[in-house]
Every structure is written in C-alpha cells, then in structure tokens.
Specification:
single chain, 460 residues, mainly alpha, Growth Hormone, Chain: A, 2 domains, 18 helices
C-alpha cells in the first residue's frame, strides 16, 4: 500500500509542486524518477539482505527509513532537497516490496495457495492505487503538495506494529554473499541511462554530459553481465535468464510498469493542464482505472491458480493496448465516456499482469533464492516506472497546455506497443517448451546449490 500509493499521490501533486517550486518538466520527472530509479538500483540487494539478515528485520528497517524520508520530503525547502529526500525515502522503500513478496512466497508454500496470496497482495496494491488519486487530490487541495507525504506516516506506523505482532522471522538457509561490484555496476547502468533520457531533450542529445551518461550506461551493462557471470554468488543471477518464463516475466514487468508510468505522468498533466481540473477532480477522474485494477488483481491470482499464467497475461496485454488506442486521439474535447473506458481498460491490464508475472518468476526459482527472484521482478517494475517517465518527457518538453494533447500521442502509442508486447510474451512464456526448459534450469540450479553446500561443508 505504501509503495503504490506513494506513486499515484505524487503524480497527482506534480502540477502544484511544479508551480510552487518553479521547476521545469525535467524537475518533475526527477521528482518521480529519483524515487523509482533508486528502488530499481537497490531492490535486488534488499531482497538479498532479507534472505541473509532476516526478512522481517529488513522489512521493518525499510519502513522506518520510509517514514523518515517522507517527513523530510514534506519539509523540503527546494527541488534539490526534495529529490535528495526522495532518494532516502526510496532506500527505505527498496526494503519493502521485494522483502514482502519473499515473506509471502516463504509462508505460502503450496503453489495454488501462493498464487491466491499473491493475488491478495496485488489487490491491496490496486486498492491503494484507487485511493491514491483521491487521497492525494484531497490533500493537495487542502494543504498543498507537502501534505501528500504526511499520509505515509500513520500507514507505516501501523505496518510496523502489525509486522512485529504477526509476521514470523525467516531467512535463507544459505544466504548469498554481498556483491559490491555488481551493485556498483547496476547503479552506473540505470543512473546513466535514465539521466541521458531525461536530460537529453533539455541539453541536447549531442551534449557531452548526455553522451557521457549514455556511454557510461552501455559500458556498465556489458561489464555487469561479464562480472556477474564470473561470480560464484552474483547480485543478479544472470543464469536465471536462461529460463524463458523468468525472462519473459521480467521483461513483461518492465513493459507493464512502463505503460502505467506513461499513463500516470501524462494523464495527470492532461487533466490538470488541458482540462483545467483541480487535483481532487483529476483524482476522481482516474478512479475507474484504479478501482478496476484493485478488483482484477485478486481475480488474476485465482485465475493463475486455476488456469495458469497465460490467460491473465494475454488479456492484460490486450486490455492495455486497446486502452492506449482509445487515448491516442486525446484532446480537450474527448468525451468522458471514451476516457473512462480507456482508463478502465488500462486498469484491467495493470491489475491482471502482476500476479502471473510474480508467480511465474518465483515459482521457477529455488525457494532459498525467493528474495532475489522476487526482487528482480520488483526491480524490473521500477525500471519500467523510471523509463516510462523518462521516455514521456522528450515528447512533452516545451509543449504548452494547448498543444499537450497532440504532443502526447506518441506516448499513448508506446502504451499500445507495451500491451501488444505483454500479450505476445504471455503466449511465448507459457508454451510447453518454455515451461520444460524452466524445469530443467531449476533442476540444474538446485544441483549447483547442493554442490556449493557440500563444498562449504568440506565434503567431496
């Protein structure tokens, strides 16, 4: 709830934040991406820390840092301070979703029950998405953009009390070693890529800083793959990606989160700048999307348990693509019915996609590495969120309110493409050949882990 609500609330507050802090479009992008980018950088490490030091302990530490970051964000005197405090908030947030998912996977060991539990988890995320725009609109209308960070405090305090009372401590029987070079290369790869995409339109694509950032990202990703393949216990288990279902789940997570991020960022500016709606009115307009997402996520969990991942993935992709098609011709005179149907379809797409993605990624991996597997999919979502905002910016840069609708059409076409991509991957990832290959890869990974355990024990 915290992680998802923070995303939707901040998006609703962007116009008010921009006007009070006098920040350009790139500043608004960094307000969102400073959070999602750091999450993506640290998610895998946080999942590994939970496996090593105890999942409940790491989760509660993340909650504490998230509260502190939220309070500091609400008091930020300027854009630079706000972005810095968003980074602190994200450091705490990186310990929430992947560790929470690891707790769920380890508590619910029977596959059908695990799929249902993941569906409930997704339903809470959908509920918070539904509440986020409304709560954010009320808070911004009543107390300005600073008030959006206050809502995190009571939720986090309640979560701290409940996890202390009900969540048992758990950790991996064989925790992974800390991979400092891998973590550093992840930071360089994602940081360079997102910086180049966001700052390129403002400084120019041939600007030395932009070119250097892009080159740094390219070199870092090659070095990352090379280094991780040679490590005994890498931060990112590159061998996981030999499993077609796992690879497809990871890429689908990027596409789904990217589509949602494009929608939230562009639609917020459209509703408040083009239609001149208040933050509360804008939040209420997006309620169909969020409500449908919340309702469809638990249904997706039950559907995965009963029928497998293919049907929800294909329906999710098709719904996202059709919703994007309805929003391509957006203008100041677009009928409300067309907007509502488009919003609802995108909500269906996002609600249905998360349970099958998470279940596919974690069920095909060794249970002891559930934290790392869950963290990789969570990191993929955050990469998608960062890229969605970053890619949207170049199309909207310099566009006035009167021309914002026309400038956003390429962004809606990107949403359509993401939907088609998710549907296609859903078919490929659930084929018999792909599932058989995943089972073979899991058996190979189990043998490798057993060999490492024997070596550690000094046995031949």
């Amino acid at each position: 709830m915290l992680a998802t609500m923070d995303v939707t609330i901040v998006n609703v507050a962007l116009p008010d934040l921009g006007s009070h802090l006098h920040t350009p479009l790139s500043g608004l992008q960094w307000t969102v991406d400073a959070y999602s980018l750091v999450l993506a950088m640290l998610f895998v490490a946080a999942g590994s820390l939970g496996d090593r030091f105890g999942r409940r302990r790491v989760f509660r530490t993340g909650l504490s840092l998230f509260v502190l970051g939220s309070l500091l964000c609400s008091a930020a005197p300027g854009l630079g301070w706000l972005i810095g405090f968003r980074v602190l908030q994200a450091i705490g947030g990186s310990m929430l979703n992947p560790v929470a998912m690891s707790i769920v996977v380890n508590e619910f060991r029977e596959p059908a029950e695990r799929a249902k539990a993941i569906g409930v988890w997704g339903g809470v995320a959908g509920l918070s998405m539904a509440l986020g725009p409304i709560v954010g609109g009320l808070l911004v209308s009543a107390g300005g953009w600073r008030s959006i960070f206050w809502i995190n405090v009571p939720i986090a305090l309640a979560a701290l009390a409940l996890t202390g009372r009900f969540v048992p401590e758990s950790r991996a029987p064989r925790p992974r070693a800390v991979d400092v070079p891998g973590q550093a290369l992840v930071v360089l790869t994602l940081g360079g890529l997102v910086y180049a995409i966001i700052e390129g339109p403002r400084h120019g694509w041939t600007d030395p800083g932009t070119v250097l950032a892009a080159a740094l990202a390219a070199v870092a990703v090659v070095a990352l793959v090379t280094v991780e393949l040679r490590r005994t216990e890498p931060l990112i288990e590159v061998r996981f990606f030999r499993s077609v279902p796992f690879s497809a789940a990871t890429v689908s997570a990027v596409a789904a989160a990217g589509a949602l991020s494009c929608f939230l960022f562009v639609n917020t500016l459209y509703l408040q700048s083009v239609l001149d709606l208040s933050p509360l009115q804008a939040g209420l307009r997006t309620l169909p999307m969020a409500a449908v997402a919340g309702l469809s996520a638990p249904f997706a969990g039950r559907l995965v348990a009963a029928r497998g991942a293919r049907l929800p993935l294909v329906v999710s992709g098709c719904a996202t693509a059709i919703g994007g098609v309805l929003l391509v011709p957006l203008s100041a005179h677009t009928p409300w019915l067309q907007l509502s149907v488009g919003y609802a379809l995108i909500g269906v797409g996002f609600g249905l996609v998360n349970p099958p993605i998470t279940n596919t990624a974690t069920s095909g991996m060794p249970r002891a590495q559930a934290g790392v597997a869950a963290a990789l999919t969570s990191a993929s979502r955050q990469i998608g969120m960062s890229l969605g905002v970053a890619v949207s910016g170049p199309f909207l840069a310099g566009a006035s309110a009167a021309h914002l609708s026309a400038a956003s059409r390429p962004v809606w076409l990107i949403v359509v493409g993401c939907g088609v991509f998710i549907a296609a991957l859903g078919v490929v990832a659930t084929s018999r050949r792909a599932l058989a290959g995943a089972a073979l890869q899991l058996a190979r990974q189990d043998r490798q882990n057993a060999g490492r355990d024997l070596a550690r024990a000094g046995q031949p």
